[in-house]
Specification:
By secondary structure, the chain is α+β, with helices and mostly antiparallel strands. The chain is built from four helices and six strands, in the order αβββαββαβα. It has a domain of 91 residues: Roll (Pdz3 Domain).
């Protein structure tokens, strides 16, 4: 039997420093100013300037299609992402409702396969089981239209994938962090 444990590290949100000591994230910011305190902002910030998103994806698209078949999955095959448990599309059945989002099956696969399923008919999806039950409910209600919100994430190159794995210790989550490891910081 194999057991998998997930560990979360959250360093910047809270600390146990005395109020007169500077938190580590502020020290990092001060280093960018050669040790000088950060200058005070001249403009006042209002709440209207902040934007909040309900999903972790930088880009989502909404595609709608008329229901054409009698399949409770509408042609979608879904899986659950091991890292964040989000539902994503692993396959689309040819000539199904979802397949008709694009003119050709090949185009549908190119644009939909691998995408995270973020919403169905305007409601948020929180995982594979949630998505399946929402699709089943729409099928039971004999919905005439289906609207999917998809998040298409850019695929990483092999080198980028291995760099990300090393950075997050995913391959060896129980390994003691290497004190000599130099994290890579890119500014662009």
């Amino acid at each position: 039997m194999v057991k998998i444990a997930k560990h979360v590290r959250f360093d910047e949100g809270m600390n146990d420093l005395l109020p007169d000591l500077v938190p580590p994230n502020v020290v990092h910011l001060q280093r960018t100013q050669n040790g000088e305190p950060l200058p005070a902002e001249t403009e006042e910030t209002s709440v209207d300037q902040f934007t909040f998103h309900l999903n972790p994806f930088s880009y989502t698209m909404v595609k709608g299609v008329q229901v054409i078949d009698d399949n409770p999955s509408y042609g979608l095959t879904l899986a659950s992402d091991e890292l964040n448990h989000q539902a994503y599309v692993t396959d689309v059945k040819e000539n199904s409702t979802v397949d008709k989002m694009y003119a050709m099956h090949k185009s549908t696969l190119k644009n939909v396969k691998g995408a995270y399923l973020v919403g169905i008919n305007g409601k948020r999806v929180f995982g594979k089981d949630d998505a399946i039950s929402m699709l089943r409910q729409l099928y039971d209600e004999r919905a005439e239209n289906l609207q999917l919100e998809l998040a298409i994430e850019q695929k990483l190159s092999s080198a980028e994938t291995w760099r990300a794995l090393a950075e997050h210790n995913i391959m060896e989550p129980s390994a003691i962090p290497d004190s000599d490891h130099q994290h890579q910081l890119f500014a662009g």
